[in-house]
Amino acid sequence: MMCFQRALLETLAARYPIVIHEGGIMRRNKYREAIFFIFIAVVLVTGCSTKHIAQAPSGNLASISNNISEIHINGAGQGVDDRLLHDLEKYLKAKLIIAGFDIDDEKEGMTLAVDVKTFSPGNAAARLIIGFGAGRGSLIYTAKYISSDGKVFAEMEGQERFTGLEVGFNNEYGGATTLQGADKARNVLVQEAAKHIVELTASR
Hints:
By secondary structure, the chain is an alpha/beta fold.
């Protein structure tokens, strides 16, 4: 999920500038508009997930090698446990198959290497009561697709966030998703990471 919200923030800043009169007195209606739209922008930006593509593939990886012979997930990062690694591998396999890949360790193919840096499901109470990014869950990782002879086809760094403000999560993962606790946050963060890792295979 790319952070289009940042573009919205810039648009709002241009449309609703804070106007200050001589003597430092701010016009009342502009003040209210500014506060309102800054609030909206902050809410949206704190809900961003980001990814940095360190190396984009030269083409769709499925057309270069449609088999994944190994999925290697390193889970030595802070807050990472076996359950998270198992779930991430499960969702990666499912999404790779949907994207047109075979997963066969007896055939030559690419290796998908994922390094999970840190994970936190956050705190649901803080998300609901305080907001503004408090209590947010996060999953930070790197991923790369490597050929059988060691060449890196594609590489990315990803940061998934669960702030409780992502309305789209309710549509994709079930009603009231953003109001739920640690287990749901974990599940959503893992699925979002798997989605973005597989999307890397077709990034240009």
